[in-house]
Design goal:
The structure is a homodimer. Helix content of chain A is about 40%, strand content about 20%. By secondary structure, chain A is of the alpha/beta class. Chain A has a seven-stranded parallel beta sheet, sandwiched between helices. The model of chain A has no long low-confidence stretch (mean pLDDT about 95).
């Protein structure tokens, strides 16, 4: 079983590498989102797409076991969105991204978001060729999640604490959450947002905008 | 990969069957809990153990990738608790339960709770020999989760909607949640609880108590 799994991961890495080269060659910043189910990935993404759209050419791929609900929700932001339905598979794999992008012209995209299946375990092991992986943690889930799911926090580049409008109602201990994130991934940048009230969204969008500028400068050089 | 996975599942089923026979022979009711991370399994279980303890001999096994936090929390209820640390594995398997119970005398237990790893996908496929599988869904996760993770709702016997003290704050649509549960698993019994305020806990405990009585009657016959 371990041997087979190793081979699957190796194949995945090969495809992910090719995807990453393609994103870089076309100047597209690929950003993936991982979290547990219900942490607010789709709401955060809908808000992000809507706010970035006036300035950048954005699009999204969204993974789920079943239903096209998320694609329908994201379509309200009026940017290109495609649903990837994984059936019983608990994570996205690079080959699914490659397949979903087959007829897309990345040269016309500044930022491609990839929303993974809601799962704090398995997506950690699968490189999707993304430049940035954001791990979302909602205030309602408990501050201990980084300690309990260290691999996915370790595999991510930034953390986003979501639903902070509910922080008081759930007695969220921000200090403990931060300490737990830093214990697992020292130095990790952490954003706090509410996609409902827009609190903190500016900082998060500025971060994405800076990452995109950096990407363009590298291309020019 | 599929072939290997099939064999793993087949082996798991053999061990789960043996466990189920053992639970029945000893008169122990085995109840597993599945949910996404942060849905409140441990808080619900701590409350349940504390409330059942005066009337029944109860114990718990609790699965997590890392940390012994949950076992420490559950130990406050002063019943036997054992942590199963799965490493990078995203679910419990029957063999882990068998191993964890090796030196336990089930004859001295009325109810054994098994808290699975927080994950709405993979645990669905692994029979743990339990008599009852409870799927927990917190009001903060969104009403669409049954539709998005149909397999796990289908594999469960009852659903428990948790954190209902937060229902108003998150504008939880109970009717939609119920409709989605019934769409995936028609006729499924649904409990609504708050382990914080105790609301709804009585009904849920009565249900477990009835299940245990039924088990004892079957044994006597």
């Amino acid at each position: 079983m371990l041997e087979v799994r190793k081979n699957v991961l190796k194949q995945n890495d090969v495809i992910a590498r090719a995807l990453r080269d393609r994103f870089r060659a076309q100047g597209t910043l690929a950003v993936s989102l991982v979290s547990s189910p219900g942490a607010g990935k789709t709401t955060f993404l809908e808000k992000t797409l809507t706010l970035l759209k006036p300035r950048f050419r954005v699009a999204a791929l969204v993974g789920d076991l079943a239903t096209e609900n998320d694609a329908l929700r994201l379509a309200r932001s009026e940017v290109p969105v495609r649903q990837i339905t994984t059936g019983t598979l608990c994570h996205l794999e690079a080959a699914m991204i490659e397949h979903a992008l087959e007829d897309w012209n990345l040269g016309q995209l500044d930022v491609l978001f990839i929303e993974n299946v809601g799962n704090l375990v398995c997506p950690a092991s699968y490189d999707l060729g993304e430049d940035l992986r954001m791990v979302l943690l909602s205030v309602t889930e408990g501050e201990d999640k980084p300690l309990k799911y260290p691999t996915i926090f370790n595999s991510a580049d930034v953390a986003v604490i979501t639903k902070i409008d509910l922080a008081a109602a759930v007695e969220f201990d921000e200090r403990a959450a931060n300490a737990n994130i830093q214990a697992v991934r020292p130095g990790m940048q952490v954003f706090k947002v509410s996609a409902k009230t827009n609190e903190g969204m500016d900082d998060c969008l500025q971060f994405l905008s800076d990452a995109l500028t950096e990407r363009s400068q590298k291309m020019t050089v």
